[in-house]
Amino acid sequence: MTSSINQQILLKSRPLGEPKESDFALVETPIPEPGEGEVLNRTIYLSLDPYMRGRMSDRESYAAPVEVGSVMVGGTVSQVMKSNHPQFSTGDFVLGYDGWQAYGISKGETLRKLDPNQARISYALGVTGMPGMTAYFALLDVGQPKIGETVVVSAASGAVGSVVGQIAKIKGCRVVGVAGSDAKCNYATKELGFDACINRKTQELSSALKAACPNGVDVYFDNTAGPILETVLQHINQGARIPLVGLISQYNAENSPPGPNLMPLLVKRALIKGFLVGDYQHRQAEFVKDVSEWLQEGKLKYKEDVVQKLENAPHAFIGLLQGKNFGKLIVQVSDDPTR
Ligand code: NAP
Ligand code: FER
User: Fold this and answer.
1) What is the pTM of this model?
2) pLDDT in tens, 75-87
3) Where are the beta strands (DSSP E) in the chain?
4) Which atom of ligand 2 is nearest to the CA of 279?
5) Does residue 89 have a pLDDT over 70?
């Protein structure tokens, strides 16, 4: 499925509140030629991730915003079409950061070669990639779960949360998820082995947490902040650890939402610590080894929500912030010859 034109999705305007499809523009441009040391990739899969909402705004952040009129950024799994880099050949599968487009040029140094015999190539955008690595290090390094402790995780069926809960089970913890539907909760308990999962839309969170965590909460892996954090804080134990990993409940907020009461953090001498996955790049090999083994042994399950066609990326991304995705959201941009 090759063609001579590139399709790109540009950020047309900075969204106010929830992004709208009209904030994006699909354009066609010539496929570029790779320069010295560069590689031309055909995008097979594009990752859609919550952090992209931050890149659409020009608010002060840990990363620079995407310029209006530029291609939206994003992780990609691609096949090499042309290579001017000695470590890559035509036909190789690579993990890169080519963004929301059908073809991209990368510097060879920024690409990671993927072995389709080791795991599905798309997994490099999720369970063996940035979200999985976030789950692994934020849980193990910041959360420090001990056998018999209770771990609560929000956005429990998602790319990060699903891996957090399963690793916490591997480490001998009681695991309680919080998710946005019964289907997601059933998946967490029946398929992933969580001990319990609370539907944040239909259940009263505080009483449900009390019932699901009879010994209190030792680790709260926070993917959302906002009302879920506020409620979980009422149930934490002395010395609890709270990896503050994501604040998705406020990514679309126009004005700062009323903050949670942070007083229990002080009273319980709990640690709340910021986390950026980029700080762990030097430990990527350790993460990929463990997670690949757990996948192969069937100890780790992984669900993808695959949307077909690049043109559907804006719609799918908007849905991600509304909880419509079920599993790691990726866009299949072109044929995957390995499947
Ligand atoms: P995901 O869980 O696959 O998808 C996002 C999920 O967030 C939705 O499906 C929805 O799940 C939940 N959500 C959306 N709006 C919400 C709201 N208002 N309140 C509560 N939950 C809401 O996404 P992911 O890639 O795994 O990312 C999860 C979190 O980790 C995000 O906050 C992301 O920014 C963060 N993250 C941080 C780092 C880092 O280095 N700090 C790295 C990767 C990811 P439910 O409807 O089931 O609740
Ligand atoms: C996220 C994905 C990645 C996020 C932060 C990062 C707060 C950080 C990456 C880095 O290390 O620069 O969803 O949300």
Assistant:
1) 0.93
2) 999 999 999 999 9
3) 5-11, 24-30, 38-47, 76-83, 93-96, 103-107, 112-114, 150-154, 174-179, 196-199, 217-221, 236-244, 271-274, 304-308, 328-332
4) 11
5) yes
